[in-house]
Amino acid sequence: MSQPLPVSSNWKRTFFPIWIGQIFSLIGSGLVNFALVWYLTEKTGSATVLALATLVAILPDVIVGPFAGALVDRLNRRAVMIIADASIALASVALGVIFWSGIVQPWHIYVIMFLRSVGGVFHWPAMQASTSLMVPSEHLARVAGLNQALRGSVNIFAPPLGALLITLMPYYGILGIDVLTAMLAILPLFFVIIPQPVRTGPEEIITPIRLAKDVGIAFKYVIAWKGLFSVILLALGLNFVLAPSGTLLPLMVTKVFSGNAWHLSALEAASGIGLVLGGLTLGIWGGFRKKIFTSLIGVIFIGVGVLLMGIAPAKWFWLAIVSSAIMGFMSPIANGPLHAILQARVAPDMQGRVFTLISAGATAMMPLAMIIAGPVSDWLGIRIWFIFGGTATILGGLLAFANHEITHIEDKKTDQEFTGFTESEAIPPLAN
């Protein structure tokens, strides 16, 4: 397994041009996502249509993700990001032409959303795995905090900006803005060299069988590293109990607080503001010396926020706003340091696969959780899942503090000492 490569002392000059390019890309994607969801809402008024759009958007993460990670670990990561961003832009061009022609149908939007999501499945692990090779390990948590703050800012400003643009220009104009922002994201990649991890495993022709074996290696790697496996199980469990709270939030507003769209937007704004402040706090502070402690404290207080939402009296909507802000603030505190740990401790030539395995598992929890949470909430009331989810999250965070493997996940060992095997030993090379 390859070891971490030394990071240049001038890392800011190479990393931040790419990072700034991603800001433009996120803004463009946020505008398009809002515009497409609003178009489907306005034209169909169907909850089923919106649910199907969500399913189409997350399917690539679950199905394609692990294999995309295997490719990212074998290919040039800068080239992967360029191709992924360019593919997303081309998908926007195609949909823009369809809108301009006046023949757009919901299925056109589903296809383009799927293709854009596939591009994102390749881009995200390539960017995450490249970050660990470009940013010193002591700054990874700060960069993760800035990323969370950036995403929070996009969540706050993209919807109202998208709403404004819809009144000022046709939909194909908004898709054109997305193409422009994608080009701005691609441009720095042509001028910045991203280090590549040195692979110690066998170099072979990339085939579907080879990719499947690469994914199998990643599974063995994760399972053999008890601390990493325990953290992933914790993350999947938390995603299962927390995911429905976001989906059920509109019903919480209408059925519990007797609110309307403005009340929902207030909760989303509070969450976004909390996310920005939490990300900036982590970016400046960096977290405790043991990053896993920072993450677990963030997890516990996310649970506190969800529980507060569930027990808030119907007339105390202000408490719901406070709980939403707490959840937003604690999200980067929980996720940022954990991402930094994985970037620092997982072998560079395994990161694409490991990151996409985690993402695929977490995403798969969403529909699975809703299958259970929907009927339970219809039977026992909307509050019940918030109370259950918040309590389970708090207990999960507290129990994780008692798990030796989790609390020592960032000890200064090599990944081979953690797992007990090298990639070349894990699965023999294919015969030519």
Quickly list its features.
432 residues, mainly alpha, disordered C terminus
Overview of this protein structure:
- The two termini are 22 Å apart.
- The longest helix is centred in the N-terminal third of the chain and has 34 residues.
- The protein has a single domain, classed as Up-down Bundle (Growth Hormone, Chain: A), CATH 1.20.1250.
- It is mostly helical and 432 residues long.
- It has 17 helices and no strands.
- The radius of gyration is 22 Å and the shape is globular.
pLDDT < 50 stretches: 1-5, 424-432
Structural class: mainly alpha
- Shape field: globular
Q: What do we call the CATH homologous superfamily? A: MFS general substrate transporter like domains
Order of helices and strands: HHHHHHHHHHHHHHHHH
Helix content: over 70%
Please give the number of β-strands: 0
Compute the average pLDDT.
80
Radius of gyration of CA atoms, rounded to a whole number: 22 Å
Per CATH, which architecture? Up-down Bundle
What portion of the residues fall into strands of 2 or more residues?
A: under 5%
CATH topology: Growth Hormone, Chain: A
Describe the SSE topology:
Layout: H1 11-44, H2 47-63, H3 65-74, H4 77-101, H5 106-134, H6 140-168, H7 171-186, H8 208-224, H9 226-256, H10 261-285, H11 291-311, H12 317-345, H13 351-380, H14 383-401, H15 404-407, H16 415-419, H17 423-426
Helix pairs in contact: 1-2, 1-5, 1-6, 1-7, 2-5, 2-13, 3-5, 3-8, 3-13, 4-5, 4-7, 5-13, 6-10, 6-12, 9-13, 9-14, 10-12, 11-12, 11-14
